[in-house]
Amino acid sequence: MFVYADNAATTCVSTAALNAMLPYLTNQYGNPSSLYSIGQEAREAVEQARKTVAQCIGAESREIYFTSGGSEADNQAIRSAAKAGARKGKRHLISTVFEHHAVLHTLKQLEKEGFSVTLLPVHEEGIVRLEDLEAAICEDTALVSIMFANNEIGTIQPVAEIGALCREKGIPFHTDAVQAAGHVPVDVGTMQIDMLSLSGHKFHAPKGIGALYAKRSQPLSSLIEGGGQERGKRAGTENVAGIAALAAALQESCANMEANTLKILSMREKLISALCRIPHSVLNGNMEHHMPGTINMCFEGIEGGNLLLLLDQKGICASSGSACNSGSLDPSHVLLSLGIPYEVAHGSLRLSIGEYNTPEEIDYLSREIPEAVAALRSSSPLWEAMECGQKPHLI
Ligand SMILES: *Cc1c(COP(=O)(O)O)cnc(C)c1O
User: Fold this and answer.
1) Is 388 an annotated catalytic residue?
2) CA dihedral defined by 216, 163, 246, 66, rounded to 10 degrees?
3) DSSP notation for 242-300
4) Would you state the pLDDT for residue 329?
5) Cβ of 242 below 6 Å from ligand 1
């Protein structure tokens, strides 16, 4: 059996997305900046897609800018706010310890350029507290950037409350909604979001296309110089096919959100109840505010990387943290930020279920994962030491 359970890393391209992009990869190959018909048709496709994306998140068309993905949108949002802040003498940026590296590394770079950065804690359950945010805000704060949903543990942040607080204080609020968009309701109006990043490949569009929402009043600066595309905020000939696919995929995901959520939640619950029977295991995150399909667990006495290899032999695609970290031996910064001990964080597994998974696949995972954990433990010196009492169990 082949089971793809890594939808937080990327997703398959849906039929709707593929069909939306095909014309622009074949006979409608015009450049949107060209004046003849096939150029203008491509332009129309881009503008129609902009309208669709705007509608899906409660924005206006002119507030949507297409980018190469979530990372670029994060970079542009943060750099734009930093630049605008610096013009007013504000050089303080607030974010959280468990952001995606597209945010964390941009902030690190800005620190080198003279900005100061406060990273809020996310406590044991992976949720930011308003009082921590309120205490961190000062006269010099130029930006608050807090992710909508975490990519490793799936916790959803109190975005509307954060938006309200930032609006009250007059501070721009950016959210990395790459995990959330197309999966949980996102409304930039009611949630008082000033900038938002999303990425096509997390909701069944292809890789390499994303969007940045920036409120009309929000100053945006360009990361890439060149032509005047995207109203001068993002040079480069538009990825017309990708843009059309992103809009089609987002529209489909939003239209089916309720039904998908119900289906995914019931599979998630079944899987969790099977995996929680594994002794000395722990489910990470928050049990109430979470993405429908994300499960993050730690199993004591094993190495997450070894578990992934064993699962791969059984046809199971999973992750031990974020895809960007795989290959590094350090446990994920996200799990460590929850206060999980280093040794325990080493034995982590992230499963992310999507609407394309089936109950039969969940049964397979429920059988194979406990077996794989037991097999690894039976050859683990650390586990043996714990079982015979030479080392204490931590969970
Ligand atoms: C995947 C992801 C990104 C990066 O998006 P790309 O389109 O792959 O650049 C950023 N933030 C989060 C939370 C993600 O899950």
Assistant:
1) no
2) 40
3) HHHHHHHHHHHHHHTHHHHHHHHHHHHHHHHHHHTTSSSEEE-S-SSSB-TTEEEEEET
4) 64
5) no
In short, whether 71's Cβ falls inside 6 Å of ligand 1 is: yes
pTM: 0.97
Tokens of 266: 């019931």
Does the CB atom of residue 205 touch ligand 1 within 6 A? no
206 lines ligand 1 (CB under 6 A): no
Q: Ligand 1 centre and the CA of 271: distance in Å?
A: 25
* Buried b / exposed e along 95-106 (16+ C-beta atoms within 10 A): bbebbbebbbeb
- Indicate the CATH number for domain 3-9+257-387: 3.90.1150.10
Q: Which residues touch 67 (CB under 8 Å, ≥6 apart)? A: 73, 76, 209, 210, 211, 212, 234
**Which pLDDT score is estimated for 238?**
98
Predicted pLDDT of residue 328: 57
Q: What is the pLDDT of residue 97?
A: 97
Cα of 178 from ligand 1 centre, angstroms: 6
Spatial separation of the C-alpha atoms in residues 379 and 303, rounded to whole Å: 11
72 CA → ligand 1 middle, Å: 9
> What pLDDT is recorded for position 320?
86
CATH class, 15-255 region: alpha beta
Instruction: Assess whether the C-beta atom of 178 lies below 6 angstroms from ligand 1.
Output: yes
Q: Which atom of ligand 1 approaches the CA of 202 most closely?
A: 1
Would the CB of 151 count as within 6 Å of ligand 1?
yes
Q: Identify the active-site residue in 56, 254, 324, 388.
A: 324
Q: What does the buried/exposed string (b/e) look like for 115-152 if buried means 16 or more CB atoms within 10 Å of the residue's CB?
A: bebbbbebeeebbbeeeebeeebeeebbbbbbbbbbbb
The predicted pLDDT at position 331 comes to 84
Task: Check: CB of residue 304 under 8 Å from CB of residue 347.
Answer: yes
Amino acid at 394: L
Question: How does DSSP classify residue 157?
Answer: P
Q: Give the model's pLDDT for residue 163.
A: 98
Q: Where are the alpha helices (DSSP H) in 95-158?
A: 101-112, 130-136
Domain ranges in the chain?
3-9+257-387, 15-255
Task: Show the low-confidence residues of the chain (pLDDT under 70).
Answer: 321-329
**Ligand 1 centroid – CA 256 distance (Å):** 22
Sequence-ordered strand ranges (E) for the chain: 3-4, 64-67, 92-96, 116-120, 141-145, 173-176, 195-199, 210-214, 281-283, 294-299, 316-317, 348-352
